[in-house]
Amino acid sequence: MNPTRLVRPQPRTLHQLCSLTLRQPAASRQATSFATFHTNCLGRNPQIHRPYLSARHASTKTKAVKELRTAAINVESDPSLIGTDTFSAINNLEKKINQILSQKDSVPSEDVLVPIMREADQLAAMVQKSTPEPAPASKQSASDAASLLSDLETAAPLARNPAEKLSSLVHQLMLHPPVFINPEMLELYVKVQAKLRQPEKILDIFELYATKPIPKPNSSPVQYKQPKPDRILAAIPTKIANEAVDAALANKDMFLAMEMVENTFRTRAFNKAKLVRKVTLPLLGVGSLPIALYYLAQMYAEAQTSEENFTAALKVYAGGSAYLAAVIGLGFVSISTWNDQMERVTWAKGTPLSVRYMREEERAAIDRIALAVGFRDKNRWGEEEGEEWEAFLEWAAMRWMVVDDVGLQEEMNPS
Questions:
Q1: Transmembrane residues, as ranges (predicted)?
Q2: In sequence order, what are the residues at sequence separation of 6 or more whose Cβ sits closer than 8 angstroms to the Cβ of residue 242?
Q3: Which residues are registered as beta bridge partners of 43?
Q4: Which of 44, 131, 42 shows the shortest CA–CA distance to 86?
Q5: Cα–Cα distance between 210 and 214 in angstroms, integer?
């Protein structure tokens, strides 16, 4: 009889991952069920579809839900755990938000909405101190998680938890049609949900930030203007996007962090915004250099007496143009190929320099995901195993990125 051998499972190809994902039932799509594979399999626009989120969170956060259940029971039996002042403040905030929600024929001003969100941010910080730390994703079955969630709904609903209550309040406020979501409110909302450990609600507001109808001020009944999702103003600011990714990673949710990247750094609006804000001004400066060089050549030609003015101006203009072209070209190459900030995720060989520059924020976010999910010890980088890690590697590879490139490791570059 041949001895039994333990064979490490080979990584699935993208086609196999797609097929496996589409064949699996919704409750068991844990490692390969995220929107990128659906997008690449079906050829649709890179839009996030998240019908699996509830099932996946039920199967991967059982221990965390248990802790929230215990916290909810303890808080209801003993409100002093977070302080009666905090409970009173949350109730007062609920009255303010309900007052806004009841007014459907008027547009609330930013002077009213921003202070409410700041107050919610302060309350979230107070609740954060008394909420248990989230546990790593468990490997328990979906049936166990469903049973636990059923018990949770009947015995101690999460609505009794002040964190869940405050999270739902600000979420309802952002969903209210007459409420206009500006960047300041979006940033405060992300901070609140991050402190309350409810990052899965952020994705819905990110989508609304680009697609929610814009209410016209001082209109009664309220009139709305349909926005363009790809406009520059619909881009999620880089700082807010990074905070959302960090919130998902702090909640031990790799797939949610990947979805944050899809809904922020990979949108057309974000690319347009970066093109306008970081590329247009340098291009205008470069475009004005030939004109400035022409006038300098004319001034030199008039000042010199050794040769004809046209010949002298032509020499100065040609030499200056060659010098500027070389300097600008080397500068762009050095900026786009600079990799000192890269740790685990680097660009694949052959990636165009323009792509490297335009998608650097996306690469940095994926780098943080790899650092948070993988081993902390650098000596063990590259030893990670499992279907979830293999899915992450495939997901990064489809974006022209390599995790733990052997040629860039310190051992391969002693100098």
A1: 275-296, 316-335
A2: 365, 368
A3: none
A4: 131
A5: 10
Instruction: Tell me which of 3-7, 132-136, 293-297, 354-358 is least confident.
Output: 3-7
pLDDT in tens, 173-183: 999 999 999 99
Per DSSP, what are the bridge partners of residue 36? Answer: none
Whole-Å CA distances, 95 to 46, 92, 169, 173, 232: 39, 5, 10, 12, 35
**What tokens were used for 62?**
């059982």
CA-based nearest residue to 176, from 222, 219, 244, 120: 222
201 Cβ contact partners less than 8 Å away, ≥ 6 residues apart: 167, 171, 193
Per DSSP, helices labelled H in 103-253 are: 110-128, 142-155, 162-175, 183-195, 202-211, 238-250
Instruction: Report yes or no on whether pTM surpasses 0.90.
Output: no
DSSP 23-57: HS-GGG-SSS-SHHHHHHHHT--S----TTHHHHH
Tokens representing residue 264 in the block: 């922020």
Q: φ, ψ for residue 346 (rounded to 5)?
A: -130, 170
Torsion sign across C-alpha atoms 244, 29, 366, 279: negative
CA distances in angstroms from 248 to 131, 166, 182, 270, listed in the order given = 17, 18, 22, 20
Mean pLDDT of 167-191: 96
Q: Distance (Å, rounded) from C-alpha 264 to C-alpha 268?
A: 9
